[in-house]
Design a protein that fits this description.
Radius of gyration: 25 Å
Number of domains: 2
Order of helices and strands: HHHHH
Number of strands: 0
Low-confidence stretches: none
Mean pLDDT: 80
Shape: elongated
Distance between the termini: 59 Å
Structural class: mainly alpha
Length: about 130
């Protein structure tokens, strides 16, 4: 933090501020602490209530599976055989469920293969449409 920024920050806490400015600063500080407390308590509360909050990697993998499902439906609507891509799609679903179960137990989950299988579905769709 530069000297100018430090001075501006500490000026907010200066005793020469008006009463209204001091009240505003206090409200901001209290609000910031309340937000930090709420965020830090989220995992504890979710554990107590038995709730599970999936990781960003899990959400991303699920989005890839959803996209694979759309690609699969597109292949079906074009009457293109889907046996191979359906196997990849089913593998992605099974692996996702397994990785999510690991994550729910607090263990390390790896969604790379899920993303790979789901991406294969759309990749095959693109190749099938080109031919």
């Amino acid at each position: 933090m530069g000297n100018k920024n430090k001075r501006k920050f500490f000026k907010l806490l200066d005793s020469s501020n008006t009463k209204e400015e001091k009240v505003i600063v206090k409200k901001i500080v209290i609000l910031l602490f309340a937000c930090l407390f709420a965020l830090s308590s989220l995992n504890c509360i979710s554990a107590l209530w038995g709730m599970f909050i999936p990781s960003n990697e899990s959400i991303s993998a699920y989005a890839n599976i959803s996209l694979a499902e759309i690609c699969l439906e597109d292949l079906v609507s074009r009457e293109i055989p889907i046996q191979r891509v359906n196997e990849s799609y089913q593998e992605a679903l099974q692996m996702y469920d397994a990785q999510l179960a690991l994550e729910e137990q607090g263990k390390k989950a790896d969604y790379d293969m899920v993303v790979s299988f789901a991406s294969d579905v759309c990749g095959v769709k693109e190749i099938a449409i080109e031919t």
